Amino acid sequence: MSEAGFDGGTAAIRYNFAYLDEQTKRSIRRAILKAVAIPGYQVPFASREMPMPFGWGTGGVQVTASVLGPDDVLKVIDQGADDTTNAVAIRGFFARTAGIATTTRTAEATIIQTRHRIPEEPLRAGQILVYQVPIPEPLRFLEPRETETRRLHALNEYGLLYVKLYEDIAKHGHVATTYAYPVLVAGRYIMDPSPIPKFDNPKMDMSPALQLFGAGRERRIYAVPPYTPVRSLDFEDHPFRVQEFTEPCGLCGSRGVYLDEVVLDDRGGRLFMCSDTDHCEAVRAGKGAAAEASW
Amino acid sequence: MYVAVKGGETAIANAHRLLAHERRGDPELPALTAGQIDAQLTLAVDRVMAEGSLYDRELAAVAIRQARGDMIEAIFLVRAYRTTLLRFGATLPVDTARMAVQRRISATHKDLPGGQLLGPTFDYTHRLLDPGAGDAAEAPAEADADGSVVGRAIDALGGEGLIEPDSAAAADAPGDLTREPLSFPADRPLRLQALARGDEGFLLVLAYSTQRGYARTHPFAGEIRMGDVEIEIDMPELGFAVSIGAIRLTECQMVNQFRGAGDVPAQFTRGYGLAFGHSERKAMAMALVDRALRADEFGEDRVAPAQDEEFVLSHADNVQATGFVEHLKLPHYVDFQAELELVRRLRREHAARASAATSEAAE
Amino acid sequence: MTGEPLLAATGVTRLYGDHIGCIDIDLAVWPGEVVAIVGESGSGKTTLLKCLAARLPPSSGTITYRSRDGAAEDIYRLSEAARRALMRTDWGFVWQDAAEGLRMTVSAGANVGERLMATGARHYGRIRSAAVDWLERVEIDARRIDDDPRSFSGGMRQRLQIARNLVTGPRLVFMDEPTGGLDVSVQARLLDLLGTLVRELGLAAILVTHDLAVARLLSDRIVVMKEGRIVETGLTDRVLDDPSHPYSQLLVSSVLQA
After folding, report:
1. Is A8 strand, coil or helix?
2. Residue B5: its pLDDT value, please?
3. Domain boundaries, chain C
C-alpha cells in the first residue's frame, strides 16, 4: 500500500452504529442480561479497546453502545454536570458514531451515562442509568487478589468489610467512607456503587430505572434491576447517614441536594452550588417562570 | 454573581487545534512522512506493532507521527483501530525453525550448525554520539544478512532429554485475551499473549529483578533469532495451506537450570519470548518473565513479583495502565467535596475532644 | 474415653514429592480433651496438625469431625463454604507467629470482633462489649482495645490471638507451638491462662510442641512422633514418667538432663 493510498484509506474508514460491531454489542448484552439476572454480581466481559483511554469511561461507553438504539435520547454527565470536558467528549462520541439525539435534561433522556453522580431528579421506569466504574471490586482495597475476592463473594464472606466499618467507628466515632460506599444488593452481593458520593446511595434503592455498571479496564459489568433493594452497609446502632449541607444552593436555593464548593477568591470566599447542573437550571427556570407569571 | 463555567466543547476543540499545530512543529522544516518513520525509526515501528498487537508497518508509522513520538499513545492508537477489524481466520502456527534469519546468536554454544550471525545490532557499538549517523551508509557485506534458514540452537539439547520438550500445541485453539475476559489462573498461551502485548519497560524491569534474586531462574540465552517467517493460512476451498506473506519476528529461547524434584530428574527448562519486528530486549525480558511465571509447574515457591501471575498480567498492559493513571486528570471534585466535608468534621471533633480533655485536666 | 470422638484421623499420610510429611496416622480426640503432639523438628507434627485442621489435604486417609448436630463428616469432603464456616465458628487456630493469626494493622477490638461480624453480628455496641469481655478474660487491659497489635508485646499478641479464636465459642482449638519464641516468664503466664481457659470452657485442643514441659502442663494425652510416624501414645503423665518406646525415652531423658 502506498502512503497516499493509505492516507486515502483511513479517510474512508466507516464505523458501525455506536462504534462497536454488532457481534461485540451482542456479547456485551449477554453479559448485561446475566448481570440483571444476578443483581450485584460482577460479570466478566470481553472489554474492547475503545478509542478513549481505559479509566475514562470505556466500560460505561461499551454498555451504552450496547443498549443504545436509534430512537434513544442520551444524556452524559460527569460530576453531575453535562458540560464537564469528559461528558462533552463522550456525548460527542455517540452523537458522531450513532447520530442519536442528546439532551441535558434528565427527564427527557432514555439513557443517562454518568460518572460520580446520580441525578437529583428521581428516575422513572424505562430509563437506564449507566455508571462508569473504575474499580468494580468492593473488597479490592481489603484484598488485592481477584482469585480471593471472587471466592469471598461466592461464599458470602463479607466480615472484612464490617471490620473496616468497625475500625472507622472505633477511631472516628462514625464511618469515614464518603464515596464508593459499599452496598448490599437484593440481600446477597455486596457491590461497589462506583465513586458516587454516599449522598447518592439512597437513590439506588428500589429505583424504577435500570442501573447498569461498566468497568472497561477491569472487564466487569454488573447491574441493579428496577425495584431492587439496595442497602448501604451499616451497624444497627450506627445507621447509614448521608452528607448534609448546612447551606442551600447559592444559585437556585435548593436544599437536600449535593453541592459543589467553589472558591471565589483567596480571602476564603466560597459559594456552594448544585453539582447537578440540569437540576439547578430547571429550578432557576421554574422560579423565573413563576416570577414572570406573578407579574 | 458567580456563573458556572461553560463551554467545555469549545475548550476541547481549541485544545485539539493547538495539538495539531504543535504536532506539525516548525513549518519551515519538511513534514515527516510515514514512510520515513517506517524506514528510519524501524525499531520504534517494531515496538508499536508488538505492543499494539497489529502487524502493519504503515499503520504503526502513521500512529507514531500522530502521537508525536509518544510510543504508548501510538500503541493506543493502533489498538483502538485493531478492535474494529473483522476477524476472518487464524493462521497456522508460525515455524520459527524455518525463519530466514537476519540475526541469530546463542550464548550457550561457542559455535553451532548455521553459525553465529550478529546481524544489525547495537551490541559492541561504542555508544558515542555520532551526528553523522543517519547519513548515507555503506552497503552491507553480503554474508552479514544472508537470510538463510538455520535450525534452532536448543533443539540440539532436546535429543538427549537435557531440556524439557516444547509443550505440544494445544488441541483447542488458544484463547484470545482481546476477545475473552482474562481469568486467573491463566494458562501459558494466554500468559504469553499478555506478555507479548505487555509494556517493554515493565517486562524489562521484572526480568531484571529475577536476575537480581527476586525469583532467580539461572537463565542462559539459548538462542536469540530475528528474521522473517512465512505466514500460512488454511484454505478450506483448496484443502491445503497457502502462504499469505512473511512477517519479521524476534524469538528468544532462554534455557534455565532446574534441579529436578520428585519423579522428575534434573533437566533444563525453557522460558520463551516472541515479538513482532526486531524487538530483542522485549523478547528476552518476556522469556525471563515467562519462566518465572512457571513457578508452580516446577514446585517453586512463589515469593517474588515476577512469579505472581495475577500481579504481572494485571499490570503489564501499558494502555490500561496509562489510562488509569492519567484518569486522575479528570474532574473528581464531587468525591473531593465529600472528603473535604469529612476532614473538616474530623478536625472539629478532634478539637472538641482536645478541649474537653483540657477542661477535664483543669478540674 | 467414652462416647464418640470429636475429631478422628484414619490412615492419614501426607507426602511432599519424595519427602515424607507424616505416614499412616490414626488419631482421635474426644470432646474436652487436650492432646499434645511432640517430637523433634522434622518429625511431621506440624504437617499432621495442618492436615487435621483442614489446611493441608492429606495424600491419603480420612479425617472426620463430629459437628454439633452429631454427624461425623469427612472435613475434606465438605463444601468449601461449610469448611470455612467450621473454621471460623467451631474451630480455632493459634499460630506460633501471632502475625499469621492476627490482622496486624487493625485494632485489637476488631481482631476479636471479626469472627462475630463474619457470622452476622451487626450491632457495633454488642461487638465491642464482647471484645472488651474477651480482652479482659485474656488479661489484656481493655483500654488497649483501639490499639493495633503492632504495639503489643509477644505475650499480649498471643493472648489476643487466643481471644480472637475463642470469641465464637469453638469446641476445638489447634495450637502450633503457641509459646514458642516467648520468654520463660511470659510462657508460664500464657500456659497458665491457656490451662484455665481450656478447663473452664471444656475445650478440646490439639497442641503441637517440642517442649515437653508445655505438654505436661496442658495436655491430657501425648502423641510422640518420629520420622512421620506415631511411635507412642498414652496419658501424659504415664508417657513422661514411664516412656516405653526407646525414642520417647531418649526424648524424655534429654529434657531431664537439660
Report:
1. helix
2. 44
3. 100-169
